[in-house]
Amino acid sequence: MKKLLVWFVIAFSITSVTGQTLLFYPNEVRGLNKIFTLKGSFGQSTEVKNLWLTNRTRQTLRIYASPHVDGEALYFTNEKTITSRNFSLQLAPGARGALQLFGYLDEGSARTCRGHLALAATPINPDGSKGQTRTVKLPVALTFAAPKSNPAQKPARDVVAKPACGTVAKPNRTAEVKPDPSALAKPNRYEAVMHEGLPMRRHLHQLPLQVYSDHARTGDNALQYEMVARSAIEIWNNAGRQNGMTRDFFKIVQKRGQADIRIDWTGTQLLPGAQGTAYPSEGIIGMLPLQRYRDLGLAGKTLLHELCHMLGVAHSELRGDTMYDNVRSLHPELSKLSVSTRDRQMLAWLYKQTRYAALGE
């Protein structure tokens, strides 16, 4: 268990991120109408779910959360990839934040761990003083099945995916993916989005995913945004072609209504402290305005990372891979961005799978 906590320390990238929404009003909290449930197997992380927290008051709220669940099986994750048993978040008036939860047990017989999640919301007055704290409880149940034969999977950070529950795609008979046989093995220390023991990916008939770069509201140089978006998209399309794909992964479109994926450059879709956040089930990639990145190379590397989450790839533990979970590490200029052999191998492995859960449905 300690190993998981040291390495993971997040979990977002992936996994189901459906969940519940809590709306904080001046005199009440709405949304606690069902048990918050997480499912998984012993020795593997469960699905990840978001608890969306929306501040409908006129004051900043400081929200604290702590789990009270049998077996101490519930954990939180945050944008710095730190797994914790405690969580806090400050929400400005009208803002929304996500509290991400997952469960983990590494021993025992199949069981359900029950309890509640305690949330305390404290208003912060304009003068810095604190208002009256309101505490609410959310019933929680974590169901763990017997161990499965596949290796433990750890969810990844910045992705919010909604799997088609119980959906297993039929084997692809069109031979659209013909990767090099030497690249078919899943790279060591590289993870896919998992749901109920199956890797998650897009159906081939969904490709290419239509991408709209929504940068008009930033007021910045549109050409630079298009350069970053086109560079990142073409890099992944080239990686697919090298793997033998006959369809591109992505295609830029000029109309928002045509898009499967919208790149929001306003910064409003980001989880707190993140430079990029992917929401596969909503078809949104949250990015900062370009001037907020150190340079175009970092913006491009961030977008490259988030686009791959939209395909079903979680994180790599190796620094040289695009999906290493610290995109702030060294990065080249925009014109020199590339992906690693292991990145391409991960996609080749994922998109040759004939038994998988559908991503983005």
Q: Within the CATH hierarchy, at the fold level, what is the topology of the largest domain?
A: Collagenase (Catalytic Domain)
Main sheet summary: 5 strands, mixed
CATH homology group of the largest domain: Collagenase (Catalytic Domain)
Helix count, per DSSP? 4
- In round numbers, the mean pLDDT is 79
CATH class of the largest domain: Alpha Beta
The shape is globular
Total tally of structural domains: 2
- Taking pLDDT < 50 over at least 5 consecutive residues as the criterion, the unreliable ranges are 1-17, 149-183
Report Rg.
Answer: 20 Å
Strand content: 25-35%
* Count of extended strands: 20
Order of helices and strands: HEEEEEEEEEEEEEEHEEEEHEHE
Secondary structure category = alpha/beta
Relative helix content: 10-25%
Give your account of this protein's structure:
The chain is α/β, with parallel strands linked by helices and 361 residues long. The protein has two domains: 144 residues, Immunoglobulins (Immunoglobulin-like, Sandwich); 178 residues, 3-Layer(aba) Sandwich (Collagenase (Catalytic Domain)). 14% of the residues lie in helices and 30% in strands. The protein contains four helices and 20 strands. The strands form five sheets. Strands 2-1-4-8-6 form a five-stranded mixed sheet, with no helix packed on it. A hairpin with a 2-residue loop joins strand 12 and strand 13. Helix 2 packs across helix 3. The longest helix is centred in the middle third of the chain and has 21 residues. The chain is globular and about 55 Å long. It starts with a helix and ends with a strand. The N terminus is likely disordered.
